[in-house]
Protein backbone atom coordinates (compact mmCIF):
# COMPACT_ATOMS: atom_id res chain seq x y z
CA UNK A 1 0.00 0.00 0.00
CA UNK A 2 2.68 2.50 1.03
CA UNK A 3 4.84 1.71 -2.03
CA UNK A 4 1.84 2.32 -4.32
CA UNK A 5 1.12 5.72 -2.74
CA UNK A 6 4.75 6.80 -2.99
CA UNK A 7 4.99 5.70 -6.62
CA UNK A 8 1.77 7.50 -7.53
CA UNK A 9 2.97 10.76 -5.96
CA UNK A 10 6.28 10.42 -7.79
CA UNK A 11 4.57 9.94 -11.17
CA UNK A 12 2.37 12.99 -10.62
CA UNK A 13 5.40 15.14 -9.74
CA UNK A 14 7.26 13.98 -12.86
CA UNK A 15 4.28 14.80 -15.10
CA UNK A 16 3.93 18.27 -13.55
CA UNK A 17 7.66 18.90 -14.07
CA UNK A 18 7.46 17.87 -17.74
CA UNK A 19 4.53 20.21 -18.41
CA UNK A 20 6.33 23.09 -16.72
CA UNK A 21 9.41 22.64 -18.93
CA UNK A 22 7.30 22.40 -22.09
CA UNK A 23 5.40 25.56 -21.17
CA UNK A 24 8.61 27.57 -20.73
CA UNK A 25 10.64 26.13 -23.62
CA UNK A 26 10.03 29.00 -26.06
CA UNK A 27 11.48 31.49 -23.55
CA UNK A 28 14.63 29.50 -22.82
CA UNK A 29 17.97 29.73 -24.64
CA UNK A 30 18.41 27.59 -27.76
CA UNK A 31 19.83 24.10 -27.50
CA UNK A 32 19.68 20.59 -28.93
CA UNK A 33 16.26 18.94 -28.97
CA UNK A 34 15.90 15.94 -26.67
CA UNK A 35 13.68 13.03 -25.75
CA UNK A 36 10.39 13.33 -23.87
CA UNK A 37 10.90 13.35 -20.10
CA UNK A 38 14.63 12.46 -20.25
CA UNK A 39 15.48 15.47 -22.38
CA UNK A 40 19.15 15.63 -23.40
CA UNK A 41 20.37 13.13 -20.81
CA UNK A 42 21.68 10.59 -23.31
CA UNK A 43 23.14 13.17 -25.70
CA UNK A 44 25.81 14.22 -23.21
CA UNK A 45 28.86 11.97 -23.52
CA UNK A 46 30.24 10.41 -20.37
CA UNK A 47 33.80 11.14 -21.51
CA UNK A 48 35.15 14.61 -22.32
CA UNK A 49 31.72 16.31 -22.50
CA UNK A 50 33.44 19.70 -22.80
CA UNK A 51 34.34 18.89 -26.41
CA UNK A 52 30.68 18.27 -27.31
CA UNK A 53 29.68 21.41 -25.41
CA UNK A 54 32.29 23.35 -27.39
CA UNK A 55 30.66 22.23 -30.65
CA UNK A 56 27.22 23.19 -29.34
CA UNK A 57 28.51 26.63 -28.32
CA UNK A 58 29.75 27.18 -31.86
CA UNK A 59 26.32 26.14 -33.17
CA UNK A 60 23.88 27.65 -30.66
CA UNK A 61 25.82 30.61 -29.32
CA UNK A 62 27.39 31.73 -26.02
CA UNK A 63 24.61 30.24 -23.89
CA UNK A 64 22.63 27.09 -24.67
CA UNK A 65 19.98 25.11 -22.81
CA UNK A 66 19.82 21.44 -21.82
CA UNK A 67 17.06 19.49 -20.11
CA UNK A 68 18.85 16.80 -18.09
CA UNK A 69 16.06 14.51 -16.91
CA UNK A 70 13.96 17.44 -15.75
CA UNK A 71 16.80 19.68 -14.55
CA UNK A 72 16.99 23.04 -16.33
CA UNK A 73 20.66 23.49 -17.28
CA UNK A 74 22.58 26.09 -19.25
CA UNK A 75 26.16 25.97 -20.49
CA UNK A 76 28.10 29.22 -20.81
CA UNK A 77 30.69 29.11 -23.56
CA UNK A 78 32.26 32.58 -23.75
CA UNK A 79 34.19 34.72 -21.25
CA UNK A 80 31.58 37.47 -21.51
CA UNK A 81 28.60 35.22 -20.74
CA UNK A 82 30.42 33.59 -17.79
CA UNK A 83 31.54 36.90 -16.30
CA UNK A 84 28.19 38.62 -16.92
CA UNK A 85 26.31 36.00 -14.93
CA UNK A 86 28.64 34.33 -12.44
CA UNK A 87 30.77 37.38 -11.59
CA UNK A 88 28.60 40.45 -12.14
CA UNK A 89 25.43 38.72 -10.86
CA UNK A 90 27.21 36.59 -8.27
CA UNK A 91 24.58 37.31 -5.61
CA UNK A 92 22.08 35.07 -7.40
CA UNK A 93 24.47 32.63 -9.14
CA UNK A 94 26.50 31.32 -6.18
CA UNK A 95 24.43 28.38 -5.00
CA UNK A 96 25.20 24.74 -5.72
CA UNK A 97 22.78 22.10 -7.01
CA UNK A 98 20.87 20.20 -4.37
CA UNK A 99 23.44 17.43 -3.92
CA UNK A 100 21.49 15.07 -1.67
CA UNK A 101 23.90 12.18 -1.07
CA UNK A 102 27.18 14.20 -1.05
CA UNK A 103 25.69 16.49 1.59
CA UNK A 104 24.61 13.50 3.67
CA UNK A 105 28.12 12.05 3.48
CA UNK A 106 29.54 15.37 4.70
CA UNK A 107 26.67 16.44 6.94
CA UNK A 108 26.29 19.57 4.82
CA UNK A 109 29.67 20.76 6.16
CA UNK A 110 31.80 20.54 2.99
CA UNK A 111 31.55 24.00 1.46
CA UNK A 112 32.47 22.89 -2.05
CA UNK A 113 29.12 21.08 -2.31
CA UNK A 114 26.75 22.88 0.03
CA UNK A 115 24.34 25.77 -0.53
CA UNK A 116 25.40 29.41 -0.11
CA UNK A 117 23.94 29.75 3.39
CA UNK A 118 25.32 31.40 6.54
CA UNK A 119 27.49 28.38 7.38
CA UNK A 120 28.99 28.41 3.89
CA UNK A 121 29.74 32.13 4.16
CA UNK A 122 31.39 31.67 7.54
CA UNK A 123 33.52 28.75 6.37
CA UNK A 124 34.55 30.47 3.13
CA UNK A 125 35.51 33.59 5.08
CA UNK A 126 37.69 31.54 7.41
CA UNK A 127 39.31 29.65 4.51
CA UNK A 128 39.95 32.90 2.62
CA UNK A 129 41.69 34.47 5.61
CA UNK A 130 43.84 31.37 6.12
CA UNK A 131 44.84 31.24 2.43
CA UNK A 132 44.96 34.91 1.40
CA UNK A 133 47.69 36.26 -0.86
CA UNK A 134 49.64 37.54 2.14
CA UNK A 135 49.09 34.52 4.38
CA UNK A 136 50.13 32.23 1.49
CA UNK A 137 53.67 33.60 1.80
CA UNK A 138 53.93 31.99 5.24
CA UNK A 139 53.87 28.61 3.49
CA UNK A 140 56.89 29.28 1.23
CA UNK A 141 59.22 27.16 3.42
CA UNK A 142 56.84 24.19 3.19
CA UNK A 143 56.66 24.51 -0.59
CA UNK A 144 60.42 24.76 -1.06
CA UNK A 145 60.93 21.72 1.18
CA UNK A 146 58.46 19.65 -0.82
CA UNK A 147 60.20 20.67 -4.04
CA UNK A 148 63.52 19.44 -2.64
CA UNK A 149 62.00 16.05 -1.71
CA UNK A 150 60.33 15.84 -5.13
CA UNK A 151 63.66 16.37 -6.92
CA UNK A 152 65.40 13.83 -4.70
CA UNK A 153 62.78 11.18 -5.45
CA UNK A 154 62.88 11.92 -9.18
CA UNK A 155 66.66 11.56 -9.20
CA UNK A 156 66.33 7.98 -7.98
CA UNK A 157 63.05 7.05 -9.71
CA UNK A 158 62.22 9.38 -12.62
CA UNK A 159 59.81 6.94 -14.28
CA UNK A 160 57.14 7.38 -11.59
CA UNK A 161 57.13 11.17 -11.66
CA UNK A 162 53.37 11.42 -11.16
CA UNK A 163 53.61 9.45 -7.90
CA UNK A 164 56.20 11.95 -6.71
CA UNK A 165 53.93 14.85 -7.69
CA UNK A 166 51.03 13.24 -5.83
CA UNK A 167 53.13 12.71 -2.71
CA UNK A 168 54.38 16.31 -2.81
CA UNK A 169 50.87 17.69 -3.30
CA UNK A 170 49.38 15.57 -0.50
CA UNK A 171 52.25 16.26 1.89
CA UNK A 172 52.20 20.00 1.24
CA UNK A 173 48.44 20.19 1.74
CA UNK A 174 48.72 18.37 5.07
CA UNK A 175 51.62 20.57 6.18
CA UNK A 176 49.70 23.74 5.37
CA UNK A 177 46.43 22.57 6.90
CA UNK A 178 47.61 20.59 9.93
CA UNK A 179 51.24 21.65 10.38
CA UNK A 180 52.46 18.10 9.71
CA UNK A 181 56.11 17.42 8.86
CA UNK A 182 56.73 16.28 5.28
CA UNK A 183 55.47 12.82 4.35
CA UNK A 184 57.92 10.68 2.42
CA UNK A 185 55.00 8.56 1.18
CA UNK A 186 51.22 9.01 1.04
CA UNK A 187 50.19 5.84 2.88
CA UNK A 188 49.39 7.44 6.24
CA UNK A 189 46.07 6.00 7.56
CA UNK A 190 44.47 9.44 7.95
CA UNK A 191 45.46 10.37 4.39
CA UNK A 192 43.89 7.19 3.06
CA UNK A 193 40.71 7.92 5.04
CA UNK A 194 40.34 11.48 3.70
CA UNK A 195 41.04 10.28 0.17
CA UNK A 196 38.34 7.62 0.61
CA UNK A 197 35.88 10.34 1.65
CA UNK A 198 36.76 12.39 -1.43
CA UNK A 199 36.17 9.39 -3.67
CA UNK A 200 32.80 8.68 -1.99
CA UNK A 201 31.68 12.26 -2.59
CA UNK A 202 32.83 12.19 -6.20
CA UNK A 203 31.00 8.95 -6.91
CA UNK A 204 27.87 10.23 -5.19
CA UNK A 205 27.89 13.46 -7.22
CA UNK A 206 28.42 11.71 -10.55
CA UNK A 207 25.39 11.58 -12.85
CA UNK A 208 23.25 8.44 -12.49
CA UNK A 209 24.87 7.31 -9.22
CA UNK A 210 21.61 7.78 -7.27
CA UNK A 211 18.08 8.33 -8.55
CA UNK A 212 17.46 10.93 -5.84
CA UNK A 213 19.96 13.28 -7.53
CA UNK A 214 17.73 13.61 -10.62
CA UNK A 215 15.23 16.46 -10.53
CA UNK A 216 12.31 14.16 -11.32
CA UNK A 217 13.14 12.04 -8.27
CA UNK A 218 14.04 14.64 -5.65
CA UNK A 219 10.88 13.61 -3.80
CA UNK A 220 12.74 10.45 -2.77
CA UNK A 221 14.71 12.41 -0.17
CA UNK A 222 11.47 12.65 1.85
CA UNK A 223 11.05 8.87 2.03
CA UNK A 224 11.35 7.22 5.45
CA UNK A 225 14.90 6.37 6.45
CA UNK A 226 14.16 2.64 6.62
CA UNK A 227 13.36 2.64 2.89
CA UNK A 228 16.64 4.27 1.82
CA UNK A 229 19.87 2.31 2.08
CA UNK A 230 21.66 5.19 0.36
CA UNK A 231 20.65 7.50 3.22
CA UNK A 232 21.70 5.09 5.95
CA UNK A 233 25.07 4.42 4.32
CA UNK A 234 25.76 8.11 3.77
CA UNK A 235 24.87 9.03 7.35
CA UNK A 236 27.11 6.24 8.65
CA UNK A 237 29.98 7.54 6.49
CA UNK A 238 29.47 11.05 7.87
CA UNK A 239 29.87 9.86 11.45
CA UNK A 240 33.02 7.94 10.58
CA UNK A 241 34.62 10.80 8.64
CA UNK A 242 33.73 13.33 11.35
CA UNK A 243 35.53 11.28 14.00
CA UNK A 244 38.72 11.18 11.90
CA UNK A 245 38.65 14.85 10.93
CA UNK A 246 37.86 16.12 14.42
CA UNK A 247 40.66 13.96 15.78
CA UNK A 248 43.17 15.48 13.35
CA UNK A 249 42.10 19.02 14.26
CA UNK A 250 42.13 18.20 17.98
CA UNK A 251 45.75 17.10 17.60
CA UNK A 252 46.60 20.55 16.24
CA UNK A 253 44.92 22.18 19.24
CA UNK A 254 46.96 19.97 21.59
CA UNK A 255 50.19 21.04 19.88
CA UNK A 256 49.19 24.68 20.13
CA UNK A 257 48.40 24.27 23.83
CA UNK A 258 51.84 22.70 24.27
CA UNK A 259 53.52 25.75 22.75
CA UNK A 260 53.94 24.64 19.11
CA UNK A 261 54.02 27.80 16.95
CA UNK A 262 53.97 26.05 13.55
CA UNK A 263 51.82 27.83 10.98
CA UNK A 264 48.69 25.91 9.93
CA UNK A 265 45.23 26.53 8.54
CA UNK A 266 43.59 24.61 11.38
CA UNK A 267 45.45 26.74 13.91
CA UNK A 268 44.14 29.92 12.29
CA UNK A 269 40.58 28.56 12.09
CA UNK A 270 40.59 27.44 15.73
CA UNK A 271 42.01 30.79 16.81
CA UNK A 272 39.21 32.63 14.98
CA UNK A 273 36.19 30.43 15.74
CA UNK A 274 37.06 28.08 18.64
CA UNK A 275 34.67 25.63 16.93
CA UNK A 276 36.46 22.30 16.51
CA UNK A 277 33.68 20.69 14.42
CA UNK A 278 33.53 23.54 11.90
CA UNK A 279 37.31 23.88 11.75
CA UNK A 280 37.63 20.14 11.09
CA UNK A 281 35.24 20.18 8.15
CA UNK A 282 36.49 23.49 6.78
CA UNK A 283 39.97 21.97 6.71
CA UNK A 284 38.66 18.86 4.97
CA UNK A 285 37.08 21.06 2.29
CA UNK A 286 40.42 22.76 1.68
CA UNK A 287 42.22 19.41 1.56
CA UNK A 288 39.78 18.07 -1.04
CA UNK A 289 40.49 21.03 -3.30
CA UNK A 290 44.27 21.00 -2.93
CA UNK A 291 45.47 17.44 -2.51
CA UNK A 292 45.24 16.32 -6.12
CA UNK A 293 44.87 19.40 -8.33
CA UNK A 294 48.52 20.49 -8.25
CA UNK A 295 49.76 16.97 -8.97
CA UNK A 296 47.48 16.66 -12.00
CA UNK A 297 48.48 20.10 -13.25
CA UNK A 298 52.17 19.17 -12.99
CA UNK A 299 51.50 16.04 -15.05
CA UNK A 300 50.14 18.26 -17.83
CA UNK A 301 53.22 20.46 -17.45
CA UNK A 302 55.48 17.45 -18.04
CA UNK A 303 53.55 16.61 -21.18
CA UNK A 304 53.80 20.20 -22.42
CA UNK A 305 57.58 20.09 -22.00
CA UNK A 306 57.76 16.95 -24.14
CA UNK A 307 55.51 18.40 -26.85
CA UNK A 308 56.89 21.95 -26.85
CA UNK A 309 60.68 21.77 -26.34
CA UNK A 310 61.16 25.39 -27.44
CA UNK A 311 59.14 26.58 -24.43
CA UNK A 312 61.31 24.40 -22.17
CA UNK A 313 64.47 25.84 -23.70
CA UNK A 314 63.37 29.45 -23.15
CA UNK A 315 62.42 28.72 -19.53
CA UNK A 316 65.75 27.05 -18.85
CA UNK A 317 67.66 29.93 -20.40
CA UNK A 318 65.87 32.27 -17.96
CA UNK A 319 66.71 29.99 -15.03
CA UNK A 320 70.35 29.74 -16.09
CA UNK A 321 70.57 33.52 -16.38
CA UNK A 322 68.92 34.26 -13.02
CA UNK A 323 69.80 31.22 -10.88
CA UNK A 324 72.83 29.60 -12.44
CA UNK A 325 73.93 25.99 -11.87
CA UNK A 326 75.18 26.29 -8.28
CA UNK A 327 71.99 26.74 -6.26
CA UNK A 328 68.29 25.89 -6.26
CA UNK A 329 65.59 28.45 -7.12
CA UNK A 330 63.74 30.12 -4.24
CA UNK A 331 60.74 32.39 -3.91
CA UNK A 332 63.18 35.30 -3.67
CA UNK A 333 63.68 34.76 -7.42
CA UNK A 334 59.96 35.16 -8.19
CA UNK A 335 60.06 38.69 -9.61
CA UNK A 336 63.06 37.81 -11.80
CA UNK A 337 61.44 34.79 -13.48
CA UNK A 338 58.60 36.16 -15.62
CA UNK A 339 58.75 33.29 -18.13
CA UNK A 340 58.33 30.71 -15.36
CA UNK A 341 55.37 32.71 -14.03
CA UNK A 342 53.93 32.85 -17.55
CA UNK A 343 54.40 29.08 -17.79
CA UNK A 344 52.22 28.66 -14.70
CA UNK A 345 49.49 30.76 -16.30
CA UNK A 346 49.76 28.92 -19.59
CA UNK A 347 49.59 25.39 -18.20
CA UNK A 348 46.45 26.37 -16.26
CA UNK A 349 44.98 27.72 -19.50
CA UNK A 350 46.16 25.07 -21.96
CA UNK A 351 45.14 22.05 -19.89
CA UNK A 352 43.35 23.06 -16.72
CA UNK A 353 42.37 20.11 -14.54
CA UNK A 354 38.66 21.06 -14.36
CA UNK A 355 37.43 21.80 -17.92
CA UNK A 356 33.83 22.27 -16.71
CA UNK A 357 34.51 23.37 -13.14
CA UNK A 358 31.73 22.80 -10.62
CA UNK A 359 28.16 23.88 -11.42
CA UNK A 360 26.47 27.00 -10.02
CA UNK A 361 22.74 27.21 -9.28
CA UNK A 362 20.53 30.21 -9.92
CA UNK A 363 18.62 31.26 -6.80
CA UNK A 364 15.81 33.19 -8.56
CA UNK A 365 14.40 33.81 -12.05
CA UNK A 366 16.69 35.87 -14.26
CA UNK A 367 16.89 37.10 -17.86
CA UNK A 368 19.98 37.22 -20.06
CA UNK A 369 20.21 38.30 -23.70
CA UNK A 370 16.42 38.11 -23.87
CA UNK A 371 16.23 34.53 -22.56
CA UNK A 372 14.52 33.36 -19.38
CA UNK A 373 16.71 31.50 -16.91
CA UNK A 374 14.31 29.97 -14.35
CA UNK A 375 15.06 29.73 -10.65
CA UNK A 376 17.13 26.61 -9.80
CA UNK A 377 18.71 26.47 -13.25
CA UNK A 378 22.12 24.78 -13.11
CA UNK A 379 24.92 26.75 -14.82
CA UNK A 380 28.06 25.13 -16.17
CA UNK A 381 30.93 27.11 -17.64
CA UNK A 382 32.75 25.31 -20.42
CA UNK A 383 36.15 26.54 -19.32
CA UNK A 384 37.67 24.54 -22.17
CA UNK A 385 35.85 26.78 -24.67
CA UNK A 386 36.91 29.94 -22.85
CA UNK A 387 40.57 28.87 -22.83
CA UNK A 388 40.59 27.98 -26.52
CA UNK A 389 38.88 31.15 -27.71
CA UNK A 390 41.05 32.49 -30.55
CA UNK A 391 39.61 35.96 -30.19
CA UNK A 392 41.06 36.11 -26.68
CA UNK A 393 44.21 33.98 -26.87
CA UNK A 394 45.13 34.23 -30.55
CA UNK A 395 45.21 31.85 -33.48
CA UNK A 396 47.55 29.50 -31.61
CA UNK A 397 45.13 29.01 -28.70
CA UNK A 398 45.27 25.23 -29.24
CA UNK A 399 48.97 25.23 -28.48
CA UNK A 400 51.11 25.68 -25.37
CA UNK A 401 52.85 29.08 -25.54
CA UNK A 402 53.79 30.93 -22.33
CA UNK A 403 54.96 33.85 -24.46
CA UNK A 404 51.35 34.90 -25.02
CA UNK A 405 51.42 36.38 -21.49
CA UNK A 406 54.61 38.43 -22.06
CA UNK A 407 55.21 41.74 -23.82
CA UNK A 408 58.02 42.53 -26.26
CA UNK A 409 60.39 43.19 -23.35
CA UNK A 410 59.70 39.84 -21.70
CA UNK A 411 57.60 41.29 -18.89
CA UNK A 412 54.17 40.01 -17.91
CA UNK A 413 51.38 41.78 -19.75
CA UNK A 414 48.38 43.30 -18.04
CA UNK A 415 45.93 40.54 -17.25
CA UNK A 416 43.14 39.54 -19.63
CA UNK A 417 39.78 41.08 -18.71
CA UNK A 418 37.55 39.19 -16.25
CA UNK A 419 40.29 36.72 -15.20
CA UNK A 420 41.04 38.27 -11.75
CA UNK A 421 44.68 38.92 -12.73
CA UNK A 422 45.19 35.23 -13.53
CA UNK A 423 45.05 35.27 -17.34
CA UNK A 424 42.74 32.22 -17.31
CA UNK A 425 39.51 30.96 -15.72
CA UNK A 426 40.68 27.73 -14.07
CA UNK A 427 40.00 29.03 -10.56
CA UNK A 428 36.33 29.65 -11.17
CA UNK A 429 33.96 32.57 -10.84
CA UNK A 430 32.17 34.87 -8.46
CA UNK A 431 31.80 33.91 -4.83
CA UNK A 432 32.81 30.33 -5.63
CA UNK A 433 36.29 31.25 -6.87
CA UNK A 434 39.01 28.94 -5.52
CA UNK A 435 40.15 30.25 -2.14
CA UNK A 436 43.45 28.37 -2.44
CA UNK A 437 44.52 29.86 -5.76
CA UNK A 438 47.41 31.88 -4.28
CA UNK A 439 48.89 28.77 -2.64
CA UNK A 440 48.32 26.79 -5.86
CA UNK A 441 50.07 29.40 -8.00
CA UNK A 442 53.02 29.46 -5.63
CA UNK A 443 53.29 25.66 -5.59
CA UNK A 444 53.25 25.46 -9.38
CA UNK A 445 55.83 28.23 -9.64
CA UNK A 446 58.39 26.64 -7.30
CA UNK A 447 57.82 23.07 -8.53
CA UNK A 448 58.20 24.08 -12.18
CA UNK A 449 61.27 26.20 -11.44
CA UNK A 450 62.88 23.27 -9.60
CA UNK A 451 62.03 20.77 -12.33
CA UNK A 452 63.38 22.86 -15.19
CA UNK A 453 66.47 23.92 -13.22
CA UNK A 454 67.34 20.27 -12.55
CA UNK A 455 66.13 18.27 -15.56
CA UNK A 456 65.80 18.07 -19.30
CA UNK A 457 62.40 16.56 -20.11
CA UNK A 458 62.33 15.01 -23.57
CA UNK A 459 60.40 12.55 -25.71
CA UNK A 460 61.44 8.95 -25.80
CA UNK A 461 62.69 7.51 -29.10
CA UNK A 462 61.41 4.25 -30.57
CA UNK A 463 63.45 1.52 -32.27
CA UNK A 464 63.21 3.40 -35.58
CA UNK A 465 64.60 6.63 -34.18
CA UNK A 466 61.23 8.41 -34.14
CA UNK A 467 60.08 10.48 -31.18
CA UNK A 468 57.22 8.90 -29.20
CA UNK A 469 54.94 11.83 -28.42
CA UNK A 470 51.99 11.72 -26.00
CA UNK A 471 48.49 12.59 -27.22
CA UNK A 472 47.41 15.73 -25.35
CA UNK A 473 43.76 15.09 -26.23
CA UNK A 474 43.63 11.92 -24.13
CA UNK A 475 43.02 12.15 -20.40
CA UNK A 476 41.98 10.30 -17.28
CA UNK A 477 38.84 11.74 -15.72
CA UNK A 478 38.16 11.69 -11.99
CA UNK A 479 38.38 14.22 -9.19
CA UNK A 480 40.62 16.08 -11.62
CA UNK A 481 41.46 15.59 -15.30
CA UNK A 482 45.03 14.51 -15.92
CA UNK A 483 46.84 13.10 -18.96
CA UNK A 484 46.72 9.40 -19.63
CA UNK A 485 49.92 7.64 -18.61
CA UNK A 486 52.84 8.59 -20.81
CA UNK A 487 56.58 8.12 -20.65
CA UNK A 488 59.43 10.53 -21.23
CA UNK A 489 63.15 10.90 -20.64
CA UNK A 490 64.10 12.85 -17.51
CA UNK A 491 67.83 13.55 -17.27
CA UNK A 492 69.86 15.86 -15.05
CA UNK A 493 71.16 19.02 -16.70
CA UNK A 494 74.54 18.87 -14.99
CA UNK A 495 76.57 16.61 -12.72
CA UNK A 496 76.13 18.80 -9.63
CA UNK A 497 72.33 18.50 -9.38
CA UNK A 498 72.33 15.44 -7.10
CA UNK A 499 74.92 16.97 -4.79
CA UNK A 500 73.04 20.28 -4.50
CA UNK A 501 69.76 18.47 -3.79
CA UNK A 502 71.44 16.27 -1.16
CA UNK A 503 72.83 19.38 0.56
CA UNK A 504 69.38 21.04 0.47
CA UNK A 505 67.90 17.94 2.15
CA UNK A 506 70.55 18.04 4.85
CA UNK A 507 70.01 21.77 5.44
CA UNK A 508 66.29 21.09 6.02
CA UNK A 509 66.82 18.02 8.18
CA UNK A 510 65.06 15.73 5.71
CA UNK A 511 65.76 12.01 6.12
CA UNK A 512 65.81 9.42 3.36
UniProtKB/TrEMBL annotation:
Keywords: Glycoprotein, Heme, Iron, Membrane, Metal-binding, Monooxygenase, Oxidoreductase, Transmembrane, Transmembrane helix. It is found in: Membrane. Signal peptide: none annotated. Pathway: Secondary metabolite biosynthesis. Its main location: membrane. Its cofactor is heme. GO terms for molecular function: heme binding; iron ion binding; monooxygenase activity; oxidoreductase activity, acting on paired donors, with incorporation or reduction of molecular oxygen. GO terms for cellular component: membrane. It is a single-pass membrane protein. InterPro entries: Cyt_P450, Cyt_P450_E_grp-I, Cyt_P450_sf, Cytochrome_P450_fung. It comes from the Eukaryota. Heme binds at residue 434. Belongs to the cytochrome P450 family. This is Cytochrome p450. It comes from Lentinula edodes (Shiitake mushroom).
